[in-house]
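Input sequence (267 aa), recorded before submission:
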Amino acid sequence: MGTATSKSKARKKSTNSAPLVVHIHLFKNAGTSIDLALEKHFGRKWVNLDSGQPAGRVTGRDMAELLKKKPKLQAISSHQVRPPVDKAVGRPIRYVAAIRHPIARVKSIYDFDRKRGPVTPMGKVADKLDFPDYVAYLLAENNQNICNFQVRSFSTLRSAKTTKLDTIPLVRHLDAARAFAAQDNVSIGHVDDFDRTSKDIERLIKDAHPKFSFVVAHVNRTSSPSVSLDERLCRLRDELGDKLYTQLEQRNWADLELLAALEDKRG
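Predicted structure, token format:
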């Protein structure tokens, strides 16, 4: 009897201490494809966790509370989680995510919202305006969803309770995001090289979950895979015009530097 109880406790301890996969699901960054791969492997041991509020945030404490209720969870995806959550969760973390060219991302958001309809504030803007006017309007509003959004999402400087993102120079967020992406427990792939991204994510997760296999499924794609990124960017420059395209580039300088740093790391 004592032996059976000891084995049960050992299994529970092993489950509770196993590395947790955390997917930082950035909107229009192939996140649904990553979610499907996690769900296919982990099944009920994977969950999607968001606050229910459009501008809400999922913290490490939120994850820790969920894990108390569902200790067998092995993977959590969230649009609203931002690093770091390691200390609060109390388990080793394997972070996975994807990044993309910021201008291609803005176009993808616009196309998706046009198709989905005016169900969000940005969707209502997309529903009324063509793409150049949409970009001009959001830039005038300093909408952070299209301005260095990815660097701010991967920055680890937000953890201090009294610190707001905008009070910290963007260059420090860029440095923090670079440092986060360079960690051994982090895999941030490129949306436009998704086959390699899936292999890199699989390699990271296999280290903790040896049977994991990333089954690729392209979902919610708004651009043709037969058109290269360079060609799409040329078309977007023609559509926006040089002046507006350059403005959008300048307002995403940190995202572009982070993207370049990750491409150098991937080789």
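Checked by second reader. Confidence is low (pLDDT under 50) at residues 6-14.
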